[in-house]
Write a structure and sequence with these properties.
three-stranded mixed β-sheet, 3 strands, alpha+beta, about 30% helix, about 15% strand
Length: about 80
């Protein structure tokens, strides 16, 4: 398991890991334990909507729109 002591919400180092809230993402050797400065930061992190394969049609639309934008050039 990997360990991150940088609160992803504030990018501050968490120094009191014994009392800090945390989340474990994944399982086994690929898991990561993420520490937070506060419960509030942890809860905000958990409330972030995940983007996964179900979002691909929306992402494709974004890429298509950018490809048609004359200011960005072609991404295809």
């Amino acid at each position: 398991m990997r360990i991150s002591t940088t609160d992803p919400m504030t990018l501050n180092d968490v120094t009191d890991m014994e009392n800090a809230p945390f989340v474990i993402e994944g399982v086994g050797e690929d898991a990561i334990k993420v520490y937070f400065e506060s419960e509030r930061n942890r809860n905000e992190y958990l409330a972030i909507e995940l983007h996964g394969s179900e979002d691909l049609p929306g992402l494709k639309g974004i890429f298509d729109a950018m490809a048609d934008n004359p200011n960005t050039g072609s991404i295809n």
